[in-house]
Design goal:
Layout (H helix, E strand, L loop, with lengths): L2 H9 L5 E6 L3 H12 L4 E6 L2 H10 L4 E4 L8 H11 L5 E5 L4 H10 L1 E6 L4 H15 L1
Parallel strand pairs: 1-2, 1-3, 3-4, 4-5
């Protein structure tokens, strides 16, 4: 465990960060969940759609959300907009593989705080979560 993770765990009195991973692709959600579970800093929940993410945010307290932008039914943009209306200070990391620059810009205007481009490696993903958590804590 690296020093930064240890400090965050200590700062949070041993409580893990509640992370919500939103992606319509099962294998992507599973990989990102497994990335998070490699660290004691994270407690992970997943959602397969924008609507499911919105419903989960209504029911639970999350510290960080990662969300894909291109999803059927309710897009990541629409989900971010609704989530930010309810929880304006909740950090949202955009994780996308095929979104256009204008879509990414729009997501930033809606409240996305960072962008990761797929494919994302474990170190990059976990580091991004840790950096956002440090800013938040």
């Amino acid at each position: 465990m690296n020093n930064t993770v240890e400090k965050l765990i200590e700062k949070r009195d041993g409580r893990p960060l509640n992370i919500l991973i939103v992606d319509d692709e099962d294998n992507v959600r599973d990989v990102f969940r497994d990335f998070c579970l490699s660290s004691p800093l994270f407690n992970v929940h997943t959602a397969s759609s924008g609507q499911e993410a919105i419903d989960l945010v209504d029911d639970r307290k999350f510290d960080i959300i990662t969300i894909d932008l291109v999803m059927p039914e309710i897009s990541g943009i629409e989900a971010i907009e609704q989530i930010k209306r309810k929880k304006p200070h909740l950090p949202v990391i955009i994780v996308t593989g095929n979104a256009t620059d204008s879509l990414i810009e729009q997501a930033g205007q809606m409240g996305g705080c960072r962008v990761l481009h797929k494919p994302v490696g474990i170190d990059e993903f976990v580091q991004e979560l840790v950096e956002v958590a440090e800013d938040k804590c």
